[in-house]
Design a protein that fits this description.
Shape: globular
Distance between the termini: 107 Å
Number of strands: 0
Helix content: 55-70%
Order of helices and strands: HHHHHHH
Radius of gyration: 34 Å
Structural class: mainly alpha
Largest sheet: none
Number of domains: 1
Strand content: under 5%
């Protein structure tokens, strides 16, 4: 991911965010096919193809966008980013190893989806990208739904986490891409309010009349 102005990522960070969202959406759509029913295979395939196109669009945007990546150029941001992502991979890897060693690898998608969702909250602060928080909340909700479904039905957890996490990442990636398109489009000039100019009375050299013809005003000469 990458830094932002607080809402949507800006500059090169926007392209990197779109590319990462698209790539991991593709991964989740693929994982969802592990035990998916036949009717879900085609939608998952279409989602995976759309995610790849989104990732390519993000790479192109990142190449064409100016500016550095704060996660790479700022030592403090780079250190906190590395710690956050390192803890995420370490804890998820350890949990997945325990699940696999105990014969419960079926629940690994739930653990991974939950861990990724949780790590987005500190990452939102590190990268100054508030959009990661609702995305993290969605992934946590998807993992909870997969857990409940897996415990109460015969549906595999990956069948829930795959399309759920894939759609969440794809949706946020597309929203970030559209935000970039709006920011890059030229804005029409704002019309300024014009006030009618006051009319000026042109000066004249003629003396103002002092009376009317035929009147008996005081300025009229007396009859002879």
């Amino acid at each position: 991911m990458a830094s932002t102005s607080g809402r949507w990522p800006a500059g090169r960070s926007r392209g990197v965010t779109v590319a990462v969202d698209g790539f991991f959406a593709f991964v989740w759509f693929g994982w969802g096919q592990a035990a998916a029913p036949s009717w879900l295979v085609i939608p998952l395939t279409v989602g995976g193809a759309a995610s790849l196109l989104l990732a390519v669009a993000g790479v192109v945007m990142a190449i064409r966008s100016p500016g550095p990546l704060p996660a790479m150029s700022d030592p403090a941001v780079r250190r906190r980013y590395g710690i956050t992502v390192g803890l995420e991979f370490g804890l998820i890897g350890a949990g997945a190893a325990i699940l696999g060693g105990t014969g419960n690898y079926l629940w690994a998608p739930v653990l991974v989806c939950f861990g990724v969702g949780v790590h987005f909250f500190p990452l939102a602060t590190v990268l100054d990208n508030l959009t990661l928080r609702p995305l993290g909340g969605l992934l946590i909700a998807v993992s909870a739904a997969a857990l409940v479904t897996g415990l109460s039905t015969a549906v595999a957890p990956s069948t829930v986490t795959g399309p759920g996490a894939g759609l969440s990442l794809l949706g946020f990636g597309v929203a970030t891409l559209l935000a970039g398109a709006r920011a890059a489009s030229p804005r029409p000039p704002v019309p300024q309010a014009h006030h009618p100019a006051e009319r000026s009375v042109p000066p004249t050299d003629r003396p103002a009349p002092t009376g009317r013809a035929g009147s008996s005003g005081t300025d009229e000469p007396a009859p002879g």
